[in-house]
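Deliverable D4.2, example record:
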Amino acid sequence: MISILLALAAQGAANRLPPAGPLPAPDAEDQAILQPVNAVFSAIAARDAAAMERQLVAGGSATIVTEQPGGNRAVVRRMWPEVLARFQPGPEKFEERLSDPAIESDGSVAMIWGNYVFLIDGKVHHCGIDHFDLVRQSGSWKIANVSWSERTAGCPAQ
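Output generated by the structure prediction step:
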């Protein structure tokens, strides 16, 4: 009986799938779609609202879902001028990092979804999911709207 179990175990080991490889690098179109998001992250680091605004579709907005104590959530919607006002020059160093973004597109409409972490002076301030809606205008991708979740628990360590 033991020899049968050992033979089955050995056969099962031989039938295992190889380890999964990394996701392929974004192709040229995906890189073009990511460009305005990367430019916004650079503008955040520079605290340059004008540079950020150049990546946005006029009239767009941000929707923020913040986890509150006790498990409640607050949902706030801000139009671009309110969002841009948060990135004026100041002493703190801001940085936002997006990891493993999923990119989907159809013609001149695209979305980017991924985990992010936001750091202030090199320390994790909050994290969550970013979701960008993009449209192609005059041959360039622009961010029409962005939504993100914001939490302070369970963020990756830096």
